[in-house]
Design goal:
By secondary structure, this protein is α+β, with helices and mostly antiparallel strands. The chain has three domains: about 1-50; about 55-250, Thiol Ester Dehydrase, Chain A, CATH 3.10.129.10; about 250-360, Hotdog Thioesterase (Thiol Ester Dehydrase, Chain A), CATH 3.10.129. Helices cover about 30% and strands about 25% of the residues. It has an eleven-stranded antiparallel beta sheet.
């Protein structure tokens, strides 16, 4: 009897030990899972807290409180005030001859199926940065970079031509594009035309990813015809010009055997003036290009060439279009110009835009 009790007690003790051990193991597993969950939940938040927001130092005077800035009318800047909330920041260097605009970078829909950033998205980023630099009031006296706000009170400016040079690193997924820095400078002042030079810079390395020149023409608000720039503006800022010459884009001669792509302008392709946005013409060109690739009418351009990304783009504007206009894109290649396509967009038989695209090798 004693022996049987002793055996039972030993068995019970061993069973209890096994149960306690299993409980210990289960408990440890739960603690480990909890620990992992806590690390998954807590560690990222710690890392986020360690990544302090990028605060751009500025030479611009603070004129009002944040609340007042959010609520007050900003005059001519009003159409672009959303850029402030998006994170655009401005500072002036080199005796206010250089505007440095810090921008968040391209959005996720700015990339194509090959992972390359659309050139029209880059064009829009530069345009936004230039508008921001020109129209953001610097202080309570409503000073503007290069007095462009004052200039805009007297006349309008419209784009006549533009050129872009895209470095191959722009298409390298290992090169960060968030955020970006865009340097804007006066390039040239003529009688009734001017241009601005903009470079997109990767902030951490200082590498230039895109070089751009925009040629603008001064337009009289009443007659809607070219008009000279005021003499005070040329005298005050002429010595800040870094290019010293206009951007001249030669007009293309369309061949008789050019390929065609026809469409109608949609409302979403227009701007705040209800005209076709200048970047939309770039979209039309590239849509026509891919139409040509699909139809197999191009000899030197195919999907593999397009994957390399655009190296150079030159554009010239001759007219304006509005919603509902039917446009025809004529496009062609030249035998001794590899990886290059030429475009001429017409409305009712009249050229309104021309473009040349050259792709990286």
């Amino acid at each position: 009897m004693d022996e049987s009790n002793s055996v039972e007690e030993r068995n019970n003790d061993e069973a209890s030990k096994r149960i306690r051990k299993r409980k210990s193991i289960v408990s440890t597993g739960i603690e480990e899972r909890n620990s992992v969950e806590e690390r998954n939940n807590v560690a990222p938040s710690k890392r986020i807290r360690k990544r302090k927001p990028i605060v751009v130092s500025t030479d611009i005077e603070e004129r009002n409180s944040v609340e007042e800035k959010n609520n007050e009318p900003l005059g001519f800047f009003a159409p672009f005030r959303h850029l402030v909330k998006m994170g655009f920041r401005l500072r002036l260097l080199e005796n206010e001859s250089l505007a440095v605009v810090h921008v968040p970078g391209p959005s996720d829909d700015a990339f194509d199926v090959n992972g390359n950033c659309h050139v029209w998205s880059i064009a829009k980023i530069i345009t936004a940065a230039v508008h921001f630099a020109h129209n953001y009031p610097l202080d309570s006296s409503d000073r503007f970079f290069l007095d462009y706000g004052m200039l805009s009170d007297e006349l309008l400016t419209f784009m006549a031509s533009s050129s872009f040079d895209f470095e191959k690193s722009l298409y390298n997924p290992l090169v960060s594009k968030w955020p970006l820095k865009i340097n804007v400078q006066l390039g040239y002042i003529g009688k009734s035309s001017t241009n601005f030079v903009s470079n997109i810079v990767e902030p951490s390395s200082g590498e230039i990813l895109v070089r751009n020149v925009i040629q603008l023409v001064a337009i009289d608000k009443e007659t809607r015809k070219p008009t000279p720039f005021p003499s005070w503006w040329k005298e005050k800022h002429g010595d800040k010009a870094v290019r010293k010459e206009p951007l001249i884009v030669q007009k293309l001669s369309k061949p008789d055997d050019a390929h065609t792509y026809t469409f109608r302008v949609s409302w979403s392709e227009t701007d705040m003036y209800n005209h076709v946005n200048w970047a939309s013409y770039v979209v039309y060109s590239i849509n026509a290009l891919h139409h040509g690739i699909k139809e197999g009418v191009l000899r030197g351009i195919n999907k593999e060439v397009v994957k390399n990304g655009v190296q150079r783009m030159q554009m010239a504007y001759f007219g304006e279009c509005v919603e509902g206009d039917q446009l025809t894109v004529y496009f062609w290649e030249v035998e001794d110009q590899p990886r290059t396509v030429y475009f001429d967009i017409e409305r009712d038989g009249t050229s309104v835009f021309q473009n040349t695209l050259t792709f990286h090798q």
